[in-house]
Every structure is written in C-alpha cells, then in structure tokens.
Design goal:
Elements lengths: L2 E6 L2 H5 L2 H14 L4 E6 L11 E5 L2 E5 L7 H7 L10 E4 L4 H4 L17 H6 L4 H7 L3 H11 L11 H9 L7 E6 L8 H8 L1 H15 L3 E7 L3 H16 L15 E7 L8 H8 L23 E5 H13 L1 H5 L2 E2 L2 E2 L1 E8 L5 E6 L4 H8 L9 E6 L5 E3 L10 H6 L8 E6 L4 H15 L5 H19 L3 H18 L3 H5 L1 H10 L9
Parallel strand pairs: 1-2, 6-7, 6-9, 7-8, 12-16
Antiparallel strand pairs: 1-3, 3-4, 4-5, 10-11, 12-13, 14-15, 14-16
C-alpha cells in the first residue's frame, strides 16, 4: 500500500531545509523497500515547526516537525508512516492547538492541497464561488461583495465593493483587473503563502472580479523577489486554463477572462497602486496624481480594479457562502477575517487567520508564546516598516481597523512584529526615515528631501546637538510629510517616528 507524505515547498519551508528533508524521506523509503509518494504543498504557516511533514493515515493527516534531513531515519524507525508517536510528533494536524483555534476562510486550503491541483482545489470547496458568480448579473456579484463588508487587505482598507461598483459603472471598451502582489512590508508574508500554497484561490477571485465589472483581462503584479511564487503561479495558471477556468469559455459559460503575471523589479513604491500601474505599463514606478482614480482611469487609461492578493483570495468564499455568512465574522466596520503575520522576537511566528476582534495580547502571548529571547515585550510594530510602534500598555487593543487607528497604529497588511526590551526606538525611528529616503520614487519634494532631512535631525537628537530645536523641526517635518506627500510612502513615514517619540521618549536622549 502506498503511503502519502506531504512536504511543503514554499519559500519559507525551503529556506529551513524542506527540500533536503523531502529527498531524505525518498531515499530512506527506497532503502527500506517502502512504497511512499511524496507530495508537495504550501506551508500551513506554522513556521516554528517547519519543515512540517504530514503523513496521510486512515484517521487523517498526522504532523511531525521540525523535521530536518538528519531526523528522517529516526522517524522511519518509530513508524511515522503509520502515524506513530515520536518526539517530533504533534498528532493530527488539524488538532494542533495553534491551528485548530484559527478561523481560516481565506487561507483554508494552504498546506492542505497541492497548489496547482484543480481537482483537489474543487474538492476542498474551490470553484463554488465562481460557479455561483457565473449565474448572477454583474451588479449582483458587486452587491454580494459590498454587503459582505470586505475591505481591501493591502493596507488602505477601502471597501472592495465600492471600488468594484465604480468600475462597473464606467463605460469603456476594455476594463482590467490588477492584483497587486508586490508584498514589500517587512514582517509580511500572507501574499506569498497564498500564492505558493493556494494560487487557484487568487485566480478564482480575479476571474470573479472580472465577471463583476466586465473586465476580460487581468494582470498579477508579482515582486521579483518571489521566484517560488512565480513557479507556483505559472503551474496554477496553466492548470486553470486546462480546466476551463481561464480563456474564452469559462466553464462553458461563453464568458472570457485571461490572466498574465508581470514581474516588478524590486521597488517598494510599486506597492502603491498607481506606481504599480505605471510599472505595468512599462514605465518607471512613480506615483500618479489623483484624481482620476484607477477605477475611472487606471491601466492604459482604462477603468481598473486594483486589489491585493488577500482581497482577491477572500472573494470566492463570499460568493460561495453569501455576504451575510462573511459578515458574521469580525466586528464593527471590520468584517470577515484577516491573515495576520506574526514575526520578530516571538517563540512561535507564523500566519494566524482570525476574525477581527482578538487582541494584540492574545496574538502575541497565546499564539506567539511570548518573546523568543524570554525577555519582556517592549514594543510592537504594526503595519510594516512605516507602521506605528505600540507599548505593552496598549496590547489589549483589539485587532480591527478602527481600534488600531484610534491607537495611532493603522493595521496595514496585517504584519505584527514584536521586539523585546533591548530595542532602541530612536534607531528604529531613524530607520523609518532612511527607508523612505531609499525607497522614494522622487516625484514629490516632501518625501524625496524630507526623509533625508529626517535622518539628519534624528542623528542630531541622538547626539544631543540642539535637541529642542531639532525636535521642533522634526515635528514640523512630520506634519509636512503627512500633509503634502503624494502617496502613503511619505505620508506614513511620520507614523513610526511620532509613535516612538510619544511612547518611548527616553530613547531619544543623547547617547553618552
């Protein structure tokens, strides 16, 4: 009898030795004359257990991890192919507490299926949303997304249905769907996990968006630093086309939609939607002045829906189960779930998909297990390198858009990075300015020049040179950046600086 063993092949697991582990399992099985099929999946997001190997048993999959190549012979000796106990064993995968307590809607299939297997995808609930969408008028699809409360998961949190409706209402010879997969924030990896573990969900979401607004062409803008995601996408797009999910006759409906992957060249600014559109058109990634909005005049001057990967991957479940089902998750104006990415100085880092409303403390202590160093948490940065810093006193803040914004920490793409009490917040504030200076597209003066001046001012403050004058100028500079920058890069740079000054003023005293 053949035993199936699952070994992830996403970039995170590969960086931790998953390829060597897969080869070791194949060699050991051959040496022992055992019939083993190795299948490759995406990571489930439990990164402290990677490489996480799963064995298919009659009772379900059983997990072992972290499994290095050197551990493989011992696993065979212990009978892991039958799901037997071992010190690396975690029992049935779905019962691992860290995973079992999540509410995986968007990420339900990552780690469960082979990324480009359409039959497995459909068996796990995929395509139900697309099939329903094919039977609805475009306005009804848009209404479902609007009533679900889905907001863009890329950072701005703009209501997805409102953007779709604007594109639907435009009269144009061609419309486009652009998926922004230029995931550049430090501490974020949800887009990559989805693209490497369940790319068919992103494809399905883009096709549904095309049906909703009358677009027949889609582009997925992928950062060049994600080669494994590119391979997974190429395989999934080919499989989707072969299964009739793309092309001139989607599932025999007579409707059409085509999809191409385009690579970005590593510019952080292209995470901003108008810069991404400039890059897609073959020009330098540079912010456009708005209005007009991309929904009115976007790619090639035509109406364009721009959503990020998580937004696109959330759409199929909404169409499959209904808007009210999705709205039942979450709280206030933050509906549904969000894949939170927990990293930094934590014992258990990885992907946590939960409905809006859990607290930062629950995330860091219950899921993260506290700091990896064992030292106290001193600061948490939320929303990427331009996100705000929060102190331990604010860890009971709920994770939702409004509550975090009220605390001065926009949620952004859902990256949560933890630091212990050795962190220097003045150095982190300086980094924010240096990062902005390095990544600025250069179009607007506040961002291009202001970020460099910010580095200089913080160097003076930390050196104790005219500190009070420098602090006054720093406050004025932050106000100028926020009010006058053309896009979020310059406009958000004050977030980490001002929050660090507000919550950790002692770090800005002169160094002896």
């Amino acid at each position: 009898m053949t035993t199936t063993v699952w070994v992830p092949r996403d970039a995170g697991a590969l960086s931790l030795g998953a390829e060597a582990t897969a080869w070791a399992i194949a060699r050991e099985a051959a040496a022992r004359g055992l019939d083993v099929t190795i299948r490759r999946n995406g990571s489930r997001g439990l990164y402290w257990l990677e490489p996480l190997v799963e064995v298919a048993t009659p009772a379900g999959r059983v997990a072992y991890g972290p499994v290095t190549a050197a551990e493989v012979p011992g696993l065979f000796d212990a009978g892991f192919l039958d799901g037997c106990a071992h010190r690396l064993g975690h029992g049935p995968t779905e019962r691992i507490p860290w995973l079992a307590s999540q509410q995986r809607l968007c990420c339900a299939r990552i780690g469960v299926i082979a990324p480009a297997d359409v039959r497995e995808y459909e068996a796990q609930g995929g395509l139900a949303g697309l099939r329903r969408a094919l039977g609805l008028p475009p306005a009804e699809i848009v209404r479902a997304v609007s009533e679900s409360g889905l907001r863009g998961r890329g950072g701005a949190a703009f209501p997805a249905g409102r953007k779709w409706r604007t594109v639907l209402e435009q009269e144009a010879p061609q419309k486009y769907i652009a998926c922004n997969a230029d995931e550049g924030d430090s501490g974020t990896f949800a887009d990559r996990l989805l693209l490497e573990g369940d790319p068919l969900a992103v494809i399905e979401g883009m096709v549904i968006a095309g049906l909703a607004v009358g677009a027949t062409q889609g582009y997925l803008y992928l950062r060049i630093e994600y080669p494994q995601a590119r391979r997974a996408l190429d395989e999934a797009i080919a499989a989707a086309r072969a299964a009739g999910l793309l092309g001139d006759d989607i599932l025999g409906s007579g409707r059409s939609f085509e999809l191409e992957v385009r690579l970005g060249a590593g510019a952080y600014i292209c995470g901003e939607e108008t810069s991404m559109l400039e890059s897609l058109e073959g020009r330098r990634g540079e912010v456009r002045v708005r209005p007009p909005l991309p929904a009115v005049r976007g790619l090639f001057g035509l109406p364009t829906v721009v959503n990020n990967v998580v937004t696109c991957a959330s759409v199929p479940a909404i169409l499959a189960h209904g808007a009210s089902w999705y709205r039942d998750y979450g709280c206030g104006e933050s509906r549904g779930t969000l894949p939170l990415q927990l990293g930094g100085n934590v014992r258990r880092g990885g992907l946590v998909e939960r409905a809006f409303g859990l607290t930062l403390r629950e995330l860091i202590e219950d899921y993260g297990g506290g700091t990896a160093s064992g030292r106290p948490v001193r600061a948490v940065q939320i929303g990427g390198p331009l996100g705000a810093w929060l102190p331990p006193a604010l860890l009971d803040t709920p994770v939702d858009y409004e509550a975090l914004a009220a605390a001065g920490a926009p949620l952004g793409h859902g990256g949560i990075v933890v630091f212990d009490d050795t962190v220097d917040l003045a150095a982190m504030a300086r980094f924010a300015f240096a990062f902005c200076a390095h990544e600025s597209c250069g179009k607007c003066t506040p961002c291009r020049i202001g970020s460099t001046r910010g580095v200089e001012l913080l160097d003076r403050i930390r050196a104790g040179t005219d500190t009070e004058v420098a602090l006054e100028r720093l406050a004025a500079l932050c106000d100028t950046l926020r009010q006058a920058s053309l896009c979020g890069l310059g406009g958000m740079t004050p977030n980490p600086v001002e929050s660090a000054l507000r919550h950790f003023p002692e770090d800005f005293r002169a160094r002896s």
